[in-house]
Structures are given as structure tokens and as C-alpha cells.
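Slide 14.
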Amino acid sequence: MTGQCGTHTSVSMNAILLQEGSPFLIEEEWKRDVKLTGYFKKYSEEAGISMERIMVIGVSAGVGKSTFARRLGDNLNIEVYHLDTFYWRSGWVEAPLEDFISAQKEVVSHDKWIMDGNYSHSFNLRSELADTIIYLELPLRVCLYRVIKRLLSNLGKARPDMAKGCNEKLDWQFIKFIISTYLPRKKEMKARFADLQKSDPEKVIVILKSKPDIEGYLLSVLG
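Slide 15: predicted structure.
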């Protein structure tokens, strides 16, 4: 069943109503339009939807999860936590799983948070307590270009969203990993979201599939 959200003709938006009376699984095709500012925020308030505990996930490395999360955090005035900083220790040493999980449990105990990162073995821990899940899906070629550009730009130093002492390095195994997992993860996310909508129909899931979608969404949640 499909429907239009609100009566604002300035917004191009497809909303799939998965279950009568449930929130929308939103695949937004936002237009770059100043009239869009505050639209989703206004819709959320009118529908009684809060955005205080937010997961940001993506189809691949390079899709822009960390950058999106930082910008969203600035817009909503909510602290952002990057899962990579919990998972990795200096020198690219993996943290013990219990420490990684413990760090996330501490974050989700807060009233408000934004966490970016996939890490499937702790997905449920975050998704069960998140009120909003935002999923970014850009083409594989875009993700690969961004990863290589990021590697070259930060070669020999750690990114702000990475643990200290984890300096960027060219890693062709990582590039192959991105290529080999891109399509399987798309299928996995589709199945996860379908399951979530069945088990927790109050969960809001936002899917953004292009750079205009992403920019428009961030514009829509400004102050």
C-alpha cells in the first residue's frame, strides 16, 4: 500500500505503508527546495515520532555514514558515537567483543544518541532501542571512489571517526571485501527491515539512496 505523507506539494516523496496505522518506511526523493526545510521535523512532531535514539547504517564503507551522522548530530544537537572507535584499538587491534558490546550498552543507556556503523553482531542491541534507523545506499562505484579518496587523503594518519593510532593505509583486501559484500548486504538489509517492521511496527526506518536524498533529508531536520 502506498501513500503520500502530508499535503506539501513541494516535496517529492514515496512512502510505503507496510501496515495499516504503522509509521512509514520512507524512501525519500527529496527535492533541493528551500520550502523543504523543517518538513520532516514538522511531520515527525505532528505524527508523534521522536528522533532521539538514532542508528546510522549503510550498504558499504564509503557510503558516508560517519559524515552523515556528524551532520545529523549537529542539526539535532545530539551526541554522535562512531562504532569504529569502540571496535578498534591503536595499531588496528580489535577490541575484545565484550568491551565492544559494553561500550554500546553504555551509549544506549542514554536518553539521546546517534551511533554510526554496521557491525552485524551488535545490530540487534542498537536496533531494539533505536527509535529511528537511517540506512544509506549509494552505488558501489561511488562507495569505492570515496574509500580510495579517503585512504589517499588520510594516508598515514587516523580519521576523526576512527580510534587513535589506527592510521589509514592502502588495503586491497578491504577493497575486495567492499566489492564482494555490496550486493549481499543490500539483500540482508532489505530482509532485516522487513523483519523489523513486523516485530516492531513503531520503528521508523528511513532509506536514502542518492546524494540529493541525503542532502535533502539533512536540510529537512535543521533546528
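Speaker note: The helical segments are 39-47, 65-76, 83-87, 97-108, 123-127, 140-153, 172-199, 211-220.
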